[in-house]
Design goal:
alpha/beta, Rossmann fold
């Protein structure tokens, strides 16, 4: 069936956008650790160390990115499975896992469609990823599904500000932020979404991210039980 000139033009635009996004994902993955170095040093590392000390048993981490969490896991875990949907990030994750934590299972999968049986894990980890998933409620539902009864979700996420003025700025800047940061939406009320997914929040800390623009600074760190 012949395609109309208008349809061919639309498909051409879509193809070019797809190629551009693919190239930007590679650039983003290559520069991620460098761009985040200051915030990692002065905010995230301390939270990762304390939070991931509580990871026990069979552990699943979603959106593992470049593998920055890997050095913080205890060596006595039952197993560690890390998922990542973006191929450029996954390549870096695989390389880092081989070097720093052999035996880690790396799986290319989105958080909304985890290829695991219900009740497969004791601990789930989500750090700076629930802002980026396409469907946050579905991703959290999947985490709840794959956790065993009483399993824990360890989370560290930048979120919607409690200050009305700053929250409005987050909303205004989201189109730019999503484009630059490969889908990041830091104006999400992630804590409410965690509770709505059936988790009971048992520990919670609010913090601000060092070396980040104001609309990216609000941070929550905590533990929730399925």
């Amino acid at each position: 069936m012949r395609r109309s000139p208008a349809r061919r033009r639309v498909e051409g635009v879509i193809d070019r956008r797809g190629i551009a996004m693919g190239l930007w994902e590679k650039v983003f993955a290559a520069g991620y650790d460098r761009v985040m170095a200051g915030s990692e040093r002065d905010t995230f590392s301390a939270h990762r160390r304390e939070l991931l000390a509580g990871a026990t048993g069979d552990v699943i981490e979603i959106g593992g990115g470049t593998g920055v969490n890997l050095p913080f896991y205890d060596g006595a875990l039952g197993s560690l499975t890390v998922t990542e949907p973006a191929e450029p990030m996954m390549k870096r994750l695989q390389g880092r896992a081989e070097e720093e934590r052999p035996g880690t299972t790396v799986v290319g999968a989105p958080a909304e469609r985890l290829p695991f049986e219900a009740g497969s894990f004791d601990t789930a980890v989500a750090t700076l990823v629930l802002c980026t998933v396409d469907d946050q409620p579905r991703a959290l539902s999947e985490l709840h599904r794959v956790l065993r009864p009483g399993g824990r979700l360890l989370f560290m996420e930048h979120v919607r500000s409690d200050e009305e003025k700053l929250a409005r700025w987050q909303d205004r800047l989201m189109p730019i932020q999503r484009a630059v940061a490969c889908g990041c939406r830091c104006n999400r009320a992630t804590l409410d979404s965690i509770k709505d997914a059936g988790f009971e929040v048992t520990q919670l800390e609010h913090d601000t991210i060092a070396h980040a623009p104001p609309f990216l600074r609000p941070l929550i760190v905590g533990v929730a039980r399925a």
